[in-house]
Structures are given as C-alpha cells and as structure tokens.
Amino acid sequence: MRVLRVSLALALLAGTPPLTAAEVAVRATQISSFGETALDGTFGQLIFRGGLALVAQDDTFGGLSGLTSTGSNQQVSFVTDRGSFVAGQLAYDESGRLFGLIGVTVEPMQNSQGDPLPRQYAKDAEGIDTIYRNGDPVAVRVVFEHLTRVADFDLIEGVPGGAAREVSIPQWLTDLRTNASLESVCVAPPASPIAGSTLLLTEDHDDGAGHHSGWLLGQADKGPISYQKDPLVYPTACAFLPNGDLLVLERGLAFLSFTVRLRLIPAQDVRPGALMTGTELFSVSGSNVDNFEALGVRTLPAGETRVTIVSDDNFNAFQRTLLLEFTYGALP
Predict the structure, then answer these.
(1) What does the alpha-carbon distance between residue 165 and residue 206 come to, in Å, rounded to a whole number?
(2) Cα dihedral 16, 318, 184, 152 in deg (nearest 10)
(3) For every one of its 332 residues, what pLDDT tens digit does the chain have, with 9 covering 90 and above?
(4) Could you give the CA distance from residue 56 to residue 146 in angstroms, rounded to a whole number?
(5) What does the alpha-carbon distance between residue 174 and residue 197 come to, in Å, rounded to a whole number?
(6) Cβ contacts of residue 134 below 8 Å, gap of 6+?
(7) Secondary structure, 3-state, 228-254
(8) Which pTM does this prediction carry?
C-alpha cells in the first residue's frame, strides 16, 4: 500500500504477536447505508446489501489487506500488514443480512522453515486467494510486497496456516523491493478461459507502456499481462466472478479523502499479453469511504453473488475497518 505508511510504522512499535493462533473478540456494528444509498438500493451497477464496522480491543486485529472465502459455511480469511492470518465466519440473519464476524482467530504466518517471519520487511502480506482441488478448498495463495514473493499455505477446516511453500515467480517481480509491488492475487475459476491460472497484479510498476504490470502463472496460460493505468487510483485487489469475469478494486487518495472504484474485466480479456481495461461498476469518494484494499466474491446458498470489500485501518485509531457487501446481478 502507498498511503499512511508513517502511521503504520508507528503502530508497529506496539510489538509483534506470538506464533500461535489466538481467539479475538470482534465487535461488529451494522452499516445500513453507504453514502446516499440505503439497504438494497442500487449502487452504481451493484446492489448495496449492508455491512459492518469492525472493532477489537486486541491490537493484533487490523490492517486487513486481503480477503478470501475458505469454507462452505461462510468462512473467510484475511491477511494483514503485520503478516498474520485473520480467520472467522460471516454471520447472517434469516433475511441474508450480515450482522457479525464470529469465531475470529489471529495467527502469525510462518516462513518455509515453520519459523516466524523475521522482520516487518518480510511480513507485509497484501493479497490472498483460495486454491481448490476437485471443488474443495485446500490451500491459500498469498502475495507480499517489500520482500516481494508469493507463497502457498495449507487450509485446515477453513483456517490457513503452517509453513509457507514459496511459489516461483519471474525475477523482475522478485526484484521489486518496494511497497508498490505485488498487491493483488486471484486464481481463475473453472469457467474462465484460463482456469487454474493465477493472476498477479502490481500496485504501481510500469509495464513499459505506461500501465500497471502483471503476470499470469499457469501451464498453458503464462506470461505478462497489463492493467490500464489511471492517475487517480491504483489497483489494490482482484477477484474472479463464477463466470470467469474479473473484478478489480482500486483505491486513491486526494484532498484528505479516499476514493474507491470497482471495475469489471470480461473473461476473454484476461489472457497473456493483454491490456485489461474493462468498465466501471462504481466509483465513490468522500468521508464515508476509507482505505479499501480487500475484495472477495462468494455465492450464497440462495444463489446470490456477493461482492465484499474491506478497508485496511493500518493499525491506527483514525481509520476504520469497514466490511461492505454488494450483490452482483439481480437478487434471487
């Protein structure tokens, strides 16, 4: 992430968590409007379905930079700026309204030897997605900035952990030792023309033609890919829809307020050598917007496609951890 690094650095002086999973009580306050949009109202090309403001007294909770679904019972996992996994379950009422994040645990990530990540330079996880085998979630794939790398971790009953298994990436990515390197990771679903391939996007590394550089990891589908640059926003997360189309979350900061934008890339445009442009689904700025960095897509039991965005509070008191949900497509 490019913003509020000074605040994050100060927060790190609070210390590092132990290398064990710890239960954390998270208080959730329901959000019934976003800007001028009320519950179930149209927000851009989506439907706003509510959300949560999340607060915990435990200072290991925060800095949520990536989100993925890890189990069938609305289990989700996040990665944080301090190199931890945050796992929990999204709780809904009978009408499908989100009211809480329960069963939350925080567990520091391990390196390939099963040891704690040695320093903050190695801990800055920015994106996460789930790897499926025969339809079952078996692992998560995580991207890091600063010490730029990609690693896989086991999933046990929907909770990620264990020793990292590093994933080979091109040398030019490894050499990007900045906070504008790898920011987004997403694994293409079965319906995608590049099913099983992993899309990696940088936050602000030029592809040589003035756009954001990226890379596709795969067998048949492997090679460079680019994302159209906008001087006002930067890509912070990606997620595939079930049909193979791609969503990209973007974040900007200007005049002391944040901007969040969501774009849709058609499935056929996600391929090696392509410049992804797509269309805008929504864009909003102002005091009700925070530092949105995480994006997830889930299909609820009734068939509704939920798009979730989450803000990174950088472990400071003057930002918020917001989790907002939208429906893509018509309500079932």
Answers:
(1) 28
(2) 20
(3) 444 332 333 333 334 445 678 999 999 999 999 989 999 999 999 999 999 999 999 999 999 999 999 998 999 999 999 999 999 999 999 888 999 999 999 999 999 999 999 889 999 999 999 999 999 999 999 999 999 999 999 999 999 999 999 999 999 999 999 999 999 999 999 999 999 999 999 999 999 999 999 999 998 899 999 999 999 999 999 999 999 999 999 999 877 789 999 999 999 999 999 999 999 999 999 888 999 999 999 999 889 999 999 999 999 988 999 999 999 998 88
(4) 27
(5) 19
(6) none
(7) CCECCEEEEEEEECCCCCEEEEEEEEE
(8) 0.93
What are the residue boundaries of the structural domains of the chain, listed by start? 5-328
Distance CA(21)–CA(85), nearest Å, equals 9
Contact 143, 185 (CB under 8 A): yes
What the block records as the tokens of 168 is: 């080979």
Residue 9 three-state SS = helix
∠280-286-292 over CA atoms, to 5°? 60
Which pair of structure tokens corresponds to residue 92?
């809904």
User: Other C-beta atoms within 10 Å of 100: how many?
Assistant: 19
CB 281 within 8 A of CB 46: yes
d(Cα 218, Cα 240) in Å, to the nearest integer? 16
- Alpha-carbon 16 to chain mean position: 22
**CATH class for the domain made up of 5-328:** mainly beta
Q: Dig out the tokens for 53 from the structure.
A: 């403001």
What's 189's DSSP letter?
P
140 near 155, Cβ under 8 Å?
yes
CA dihedral sign of residues 305, 309, 310, 312: positive
DSSP 116: B
